[in-house]
Amino acid sequence: MKQAALPILVLLVVVTLAIVTALPSASVEADHYQRFRDGNSLYTLLSGSIGRGYSLQDVEELLGPGTPLESEDSVETHRAALRETAMWDPDSYPDGIYNDDTFKAWSGSDEEVTLQFRNNHLVNFLPEQFTTFRPSYDLAGQAEQYDEIEVNSELEIAGREVSSAPLTREKSNPVTTTAQ
Predict the structure, then answer these.
(1) What is the DSSP string of 39-102?
(2) pTM > 0.70: yes or no
């Protein structure tokens, strides 16, 4: 009995490995995101499964089809905001912003992430911007705060907020206690 157990175990391991390698390589997280469109799955994919230089086809295999920006005016507004941000912080957009760049958006929960593509390849993308999912809240048309930062941005590209209005930090009144 003991002599037969080892060959059977080896056979089971070989068959299991063959089955695993033959399975489609679709990510469970990608399937979950495409089904439920939740922000946590979106950020998980953006931080770990997608990288700068990926083709639009590769990104859409993981995230599903992206939504192009509605109009040329909207695209020009995005480009102008990006150029303004890149002027003040050149390291934030090392690939620059060109007139023929395309932008596609993916949503998750209440989040929307817009990615920039040039010649059908992802540019100006930093995966570390997506390591933590931070849901936003909109109550009665007013953007609420998370992490004590007031969100005034109308635009978020590749996880970075781009706006003509600066982000402001809320000052809280410190609570002082005295020992008696």
Answers:
(1) HHHHHHHHHHT--TT-BHHHHHHHH-PPEEPS-HHHHHHHHHHHHHHHHH-GGG-TT---TT-E
(2) no
